[in-house]
Design goal:
Homodimer. Interacts with FtsZ. It comes from Devosia insulae DS-56. The protein has one domain (3-124). It contains 2 helices and 2 strands; from the N terminus they run ββαα. A two-stranded antiparallel ribbon has the order 1-2. The protein has 125 residues and is mainly alpha-helical. α1 packs across α2 (48-124).
Length: 125
Amino acid sequence: MPEVNVDINGRKYRMACEEGQEQHLLGLADRFNQHIDQFKGTFGEIGDNRLTVMAGIAVLDELAEAERRITELKQDVANLTQVGEALTHEAEELERKFAKRLNEAARKIEAISSAIDETGAAAGA
């Protein structure tokens, strides 16, 4: 199992990860360290443990917001799917009604055509 050294708040930590995940772990550590640096810039030196806890809570807050947004998006997808299905059914119903009326019109045209043919045949006889 590969190991990488990550730098969090000026300290090096050796961490194991799955094969091929080294860069991902380094990126996560860098992102976490950015939170710590941000808090250091805002609050100054308030202690390593406190900074780490604050950064951890900030990351979890981002995660909670992302999960909330995902839930909203899933609901949006479900609503759009439902609307799409309703429109599909409505279009199918309109198509069925149109086909029925088109068939009725075709029968009437056929009947008129037959009547004209009969009238023309009777006049010619």
